[in-house]
């Protein structure tokens, strides 16, 4: 059976992903730019401001808020060192108490605070997060540059995590072998795979581990 072709910006079947974080990836970034086929102009360069909600008791559900919308992805599996994540839920603010009780706080895997209102604005929700001993909101600003190498969707990005500047690089596809080839071509095959949750916890001091470089 022929493999499905990856298309930047379009939804495909669940992808596998390699990502890493460090202070620099100059050599790999230059190779990525040279090896990339042309990509749509909309992904050449993108900027965003997001809020991640991290939990001391959870590393399998990735929660972020952007443009007034909450997006939670859940970890599925690791295969050949690559991670697979699937959408768990999407919601807009104001958000209902039912969704918070049924989906959001269970995803954090923490004790649920008392929910007295039927709906919560983004400000009210973040106030609850700030008061919770096991949760923390983290401001993340991304400056992303998109590429496509070996039919894998790639990017290099400068990221501010609560103002701390780090770099990230990634390759994702439905086909593991294509990612593996890309990592070899970019000299990243010996580099640690670090997802956003892990990187944020390392930067804010919730993990003793270092970044990749």
Short description:
With 213 residues, the chain is of the alpha+beta class.
Here the CATH topology equals Hypothetical Protein Pfu-838710-001
Q: How many strand units? A: 10
Instruction: Pick out the low-confidence regions.
Output: none
Question: In sequence order, what are the helices and strands, one letter per element?
Answer: EHEEEEEHEHEEEHH
Largest sheet features: 8 strands, antiparallel, barrel
Structural description of this entry:
With 213 residues, this protein is an alpha+beta fold. It has one domain: Hypothetical Protein Pfu-838710-001 (Beta Barrel), CATH 2.40.320. The protein has 5 helices and 10 strands. Strands 1-5-4-3-2-8-9-10 form an 8-stranded antiparallel beta barrel, surrounded by 5 helices. A hairpin with a 2-residue loop joins strand 8 and strand 9. The model has no long low-confidence stretch (mean pLDDT 95).
Descriptive keywords:
alpha+beta, Hypothetical Protein Pfu-838710-001, two-stranded antiparallel sheet, 213 residues
Helix-strand blueprint:
Elements: E1 16-22, H1 26-35, E2 46-55, E3 58-66, E4 69-79, E5 82-92, E6 95-96, H2 97-108, E7 119-120, H3 122-131, E8 135-149, E9 152-161, E10 164-173, H4 176-186, H5 196-204
């Amino acid at each position: 059976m022929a493999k499905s072709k990856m298309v930047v910006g379009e939804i495909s079947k669940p992808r596998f992903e390699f990502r890493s974080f460090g202070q620099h990836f100059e050599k790999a970034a230059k190779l990525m730019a040279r090896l990339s086929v042309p990509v749509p102009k909309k992904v050449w360069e993108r900027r965003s401001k997001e809020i991640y909600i991290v939990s001391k008791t959870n590393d399998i559900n990735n929660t972020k808020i952007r443009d007034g919308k909450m997006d939670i992805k859940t970890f599925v599996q690791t295969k050949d060192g690559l991670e697979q994540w699937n959408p768990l839920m999407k919601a807009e603010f104001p958000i209902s108490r039912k969704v918070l009780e049924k989906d959001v706080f269970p995803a954090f895997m923490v004790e649920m605070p008392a929910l007295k209102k039927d709906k919560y604005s983004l400000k009210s929700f973040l106030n609850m997060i700030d008061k919770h001993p096991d949760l923390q909101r983290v401001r993340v600003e991304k400056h992303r540059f998109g590429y496509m190498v070996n039919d894998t969707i790639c990017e290099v990005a400068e990221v501010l995590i609560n103002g701390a500047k780090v770099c990230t690089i990634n390759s994702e596809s439905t086909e593991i072998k294509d990612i593996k080839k890309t990592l070899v071509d970019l000299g990243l095959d010996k580099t640690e795979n670090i997802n956003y949750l892990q990187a944020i916890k390392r930067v804010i001091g919730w993990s003793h581990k270092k970044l990749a470089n």
